[in-house]
Every structure is written in C-alpha cells, then in structure tokens.
Amino acid sequence: MYAFFEMMEAIQAFMETGGSVLTWIAALIFVMWILIFERIAFIKFGYKKYEATVRKTWEKRSERKSWNAMQIREAMISRASNKLNENLLLLNALVALCPLLGLMGTVTGMIEVFDVMAISGSGSARSMASGVSKATIPTMAGMVGALSGVFASTWLSRSAKREAELLEDHLTTDH
Amino acid sequence: MKSIFKRLLTAAALSTTMTTSVFAAQENTAVNLDQLLTQLEQGKLFQNTQNEQREKEFLAKKAQQVQMLNEADARRTQLTQRSESLETTFEKNEIELANLSETLNNRMGSLKELFGVLQQVAGDMQGKFENSIISAQYPNRGVFLDELAQKMGQSSKLASVEEIERVWFELQREMTESGKITRFDAPVMNADTGTKNQQEVVRVGAFNLVSNGKFLEYVKQTGSLAELSRQPSDRYLSTASAVQEQKGELVEFALDPTGGSILGLLVQAPNMTERVEQGGTVGYVILAVGLIGLLIAIERFISLTIIGGKIKRQLKQATPSTNNPLGRVMKVKTDNPTADSETLELKLSEAILREVPKLARNLTFIKIISVVAPLLGLLGTVTGMINTFQAITLFGTGDPKLMAGGISQALVTTVLGLVVAIPTLLLYTVLNTRSRGLISILQEQSAGIIAERAEQGE
User: Is B216 helix (H, G, I), strand (E, B) or coil?
Assistant: First the structure.
C-alpha cells in the first residue's frame, strides 16, 4: 500500500514537471492502448466466433458456384474485413499524433522559458529550468508513446490482413 | 619699407584734414584765417585766468586735507585694537566649546550609541513602511519617521522620550497588524472605469489586499489602492471573495507570500488573446485555415452521418429508395430485371462510380490543411527568427527583451500550427474511416446484397 502511494506521488511529480501538455499526451496514449487492447481481444476471441458463423452460413448453402453465390461470398469477406480493420486507421492517426503533441509541449515549454527571460531580464538557468523540463519531458513522452504504438499498430494491421486472406481461403467454391 | 612710410604719410594727412574739419565745425563763425587767429588769442587769455583761480582754491583746501588724514589714522588704530580683543575672545570661546562638547560626549556615553541605533531603525522602518500594504490602512506613518531620521542626523538635537516611544509603537503595530485579517473602508481605483470608489477592503496580514472579490495593489508612490488590471484565474479569485464574506469560520485563501510581487508579475504575463496576437499575420492565416478546415469537417460529419443512417435503413428494407447511394445502386437491378450478369455488373460499377465522389468529397482538403498548418507554423518560426536577428543587428544581444518579440512570434506560430494540425488530422481520420466504410458497402457489398435479396425472393 505504501509503495503504491509512493508510486502515485512520483507519477504526480512527473506529470507536474511535464506541464499540461503531458496530461494530453497521457490521455492520448491511454486511449491508444485501450484501442490496441480492444483490437487484440477482438482478433483473438470475438473474430473467431464471427468467422465460424460466416463459414457455417457459407457451407449451408445449397450451391456455391452461381453469380449470386460469388457476390454473396465477396460481401461476406468484405464485412469480415471491415470488422477486422475497424479503428485501425484511427489507431494509426493516434500514433502519428503522439510526436506532434510532444512537439507542441516543446514549443509551449520554450515560450515559458522566454517569458521567464523577458520578465526577469536575465538568463538565470535556475529560473528557466521549469520551462526547459516542460519542453523536454513531453517530447520524450510523445516519442515513447509513438514507439510503443507503432509496433502494436503494425502487428494489428498485419494480423487483420492475414485473417481476411485466411477467410477468403476457407470460403471454398468447390467440394 | 617705402610702402609703410607712404601709409604713415597718408594717415597723417587724413588726421590733419579731420582736425581742420572739426575746427571748422566748432568755429563756424570764423570765415577767414585772421578772425580764427583773434579767436585763439582770446581763448588763451580766458584759460589762463581760470587756471589761476583753481590754484588758489587748491591751496586754501590743503590745510583741511591734512586734518582729515589725521582723523583717519586715529580711527584705524582704534579698530585694530578692537579686532585684536575680539580675536582673543573667539579663541577663548572655541576652547570653551571644545570643553563643553567633550563634557556632552562624556555625559551621553552609551546613550549616543542608542541614538545611532534609533536613527538607523527609523530609516529602515521608513523604507519598510513605504512598501508595506499595512500603510494603506494607516497612511502617513513614514512622515514622522522621515522627520525623526533627519533630526537625529543633526548632532545638536536629541530625540524626545515621546518620539522614541512612538518608534517602538509603530514597530509593534506593524508586527501585530501583519498577523491579522482586518476590514477597513478606503478609496479604491477601479481598473475598468478609472474612478475611485469608497469601499470595504480586506487586508490579509502583510500579504494581500482584497476588495469586491478582486485583488488590489498598493501603489507606494501615491499611497493609494488600485485593482490589479489583470486578476489571477477564477480558482484564486473565488477565494478572494470567500475571505471577504467569511464570518469567523475558516476559508481557503490564495496568498501571495511576496506581498504583491508575484501578483505584479501577473500583469506582465500575456493572456491567450495577446499570445495569439504575438503570432502576427502568419498566426492569423493559420487560424483562418484551421477554421475553414473545421467548418468543412463539420459539414462532412453531418452529411456522412445522414447518408450512413439512410444506408443502414436501406439495408433493412427490401425495396430500394432513391434517397440514398445504396438504394440508387440497388435500383439498377430492379430497373434491368432481364439483363445478364455481365451487363448487370457493368451497370452496377457505373452506378457506384457515380456515388463515390459524393462520399469522399472535400476529405482531401482537410488532409491538406492538416499538412499545411505545421508548414505555415514553420514559416512563422522562420520569419520570427528573421525579426530576432534583425533586432540583434540593430541593438546587439545585450537586452533579451528586445529579441523577445521575434522569438515569441516564432514560437507562437509553431504552437498555432500544431494546434490546428492535431485536431484536423484526427477529424480527417474519423471522417475518412466513415466514408471508406460507406464506400466499401457500395463497392464490395452492393452486389452481394442484391444477390441475397434475389435469393430470398425466390
């Protein structure tokens, strides 16, 4: 319990030194990882069930070679692919936003540094330190968020593509 | 040599002519030389008698002058004697004075040190009172101290017991008052209207002055109170009104422990609109572009939602209606019931091609804005840096405040670029996902949906 409080305090201190932009980055990374986990859970569990029902409906058809059948098969694959790719574009956009927000933190931090310079009229490193940490910490956080997201999103799009191709193979026309 | 001689001659000639002309002017009655001669002769005679008369007068006065000289001599001796006697008295007095001041020193002893301390304390206190906000409640405290310090500066004057006690009292009062929250009525300068109103002021120790839910500043030059032209954020302002309305219970209060310096800096810090203004033309261009992007995004969002809803309703209905893209595509099948599959497919893809641009319209524009905004920000950065370097060329690097304008332009435009780019990028992604979903329903599923309907109908 004590260790937990200590950890929370450390996190709070870190967020304060990073400034308000860091809060935005934290929220962004949080949303990003929620999406990533949702996608992983869907591919591992939800999609398996869906694929099974799709395959069953296809197998139940009396004939699988007519024009109608081909069109229905296309539609089925497209729907499955839509389900697999849902939110992936948004995820990619969130990954791209991470460094941008980090850059924004850098610039707002630098503005604070120059404000301190303009008001105090001196280049005292001690008084500028808070602005500098507000400039650098969000940059780092943005980079960390983007890096962590890039791997996940790449893996997710590859699995989505593979699953869609697998479904196409499974919905056979002749047998 | 010759030329000099010549010049002299001419000068002599000139002077003679001048004297003659003068004579001619004086004796205009003399018409010829003989008359002039007689006139001269008469003049000489007259002058001689005059001179003789003068001589007589002078001789008569001679005895009188001797007497006057004797009198002056006697007076001088008398005065010299007096000066000598005065000098001796002066010397005697000086010695006596030295003796007396030595006695004074001896008698004052440790008191002298006390007066020195008193003078120093009075001087220090005056400076302190000038800056202290307690002076707003008790004005003119500094005048007495100032007089006292000046009086003590002269060696001949001593402080009275009343004055010493008053210094003590003022010190004690400052100390006691700095630990109190008090209310008093005072004229306060309104920041908006510039008028003075008599109103209740709450003083929190020696730290803050609050009135009508606003923080006040104490102007030490005039000794008057004024509302700060820029107040701190609402979170802190609410505590100011809370402390004024409190009735003996504990309330939270935002305190400026520096006694006004931090609040004074607040006035210098620019607010949101001033920040945006620092961005200059480029900043406004970025904001305008961002606004355009936002408006397009809103329009797209609304129309895509409406179209999406109609397509969803169409998916549940068997009969195609012409008010939505899917319905129009499905209608191709009902319009051509006898067409073979290949013709049907061609007709379908033609219908789809007609629908796609409507769904994807303007989305690229939002995408372009999200890319252009940071670039514009970069442009602002560079122009701002150019301004900075121009300032350096003109004024040197001595004063960072001169460079601040260009630097803040550089940074503010970058921030504005990002502020526009981040939401536009997000909006583009969301809208693009929506439109692609609808397009994929048209492109990949419309034929399938038609086929399903056909099979259900059989």
Answer: strand
Distance CA A23, CA B355 (A): 42
Q: How confident is the model at residue B191 (pLDDT cuts 50, 70, 90)?
A: confident
Using alpha carbons, select from B328, B323, B292 the residue that is nearest to residue B420: B292
The CA distances from residue B201 to A58, B37, B129, B184, B255, in Å, are: 83, 110, 19, 5, 16
Note every long-range contact of B355-361, with CB atoms under 8 Å and residues 24 or more positions apart, other chains counting: B355/B325, B355/B328, B355/B329, B355/B442, B356/B439, B356/B442, B356/B443, B358/B325, B359/B304, B359/B307, B359/B325, B359/B435, B359/B438, B359/B439, B359/B442, B360/B435, B360/B439, B361/B300
Each residue of A13-46: pLDDT tens digit? 888 888 888 999 999 999 999 999 999 999 989 8
Taking CB atoms and an 8 Å limit, are B399 and A121 in contact across chains? yes
Residue of B nearest to A24 (CA): B422
Element at B354 (helix H, strand E): helix B341-360
Residues 6+ apart with CB under 8 A from B390: B406
CA-based radius of gyration for chain A? 25
Q: Is A43 on the interface with B (CB under 8 A)?
A: no
Cβ neighbors of B400 (< 8 A, separation 6 or more) are: A117, A118, A121, A122, A123
DSSP-derived secondary structure letter, B211: E
The model's pLDDT over B305-336, given as tens digits with 9 standing for 90+, comes to 999 998 888 888 877 788 888 888 888 877 87
Q: Minimal CA–CA distance to B271: which of B229, B208, B238, B211?
A: B229
Q: Which residue of A has its CA nearest to B404?
A: A118
| Spatial distance between the Cα atoms of B133 and B146, rounded to a whole number of angstroms | 18
Question: Cβ of A39: how many Cβ atoms within 10 Å?
Answer: 25
Give SS3 for B170: helix
Per DSSP, the three-state class of B185 is: strand
What is the rounded average pLDDT of the residues A58-86? Answer: 84
Cβ contacts of B437 on chain A, cutoff 8 Å: 82
Rounded alpha-carbon distances, angstroms, from residue B275 to A80, B270, B278, B401, B412 = 50, 6, 5, 16, 7
Nearest one of B249, B252, B136 to B202, comparing CA atoms: B136
ipTM of the complex: 0.81
Chain position carrying tokens 């091609």: B353
Q: Which of B329, B366, B413, B415 to mutate to test the interface with A (most CBs of A within 10 A)?
A: B415
CB atoms within 10 A of CB B123: 17
pLDDT tens digits, one per residue of B115-153 = 888 888 888 888 888 888 888 888 777 788 888 878 777
Residue of A28, A32, A66, A71 best to disrupt the B interface, most CBs of B under 10 A:
A71
DSSP character for B108?
A: H
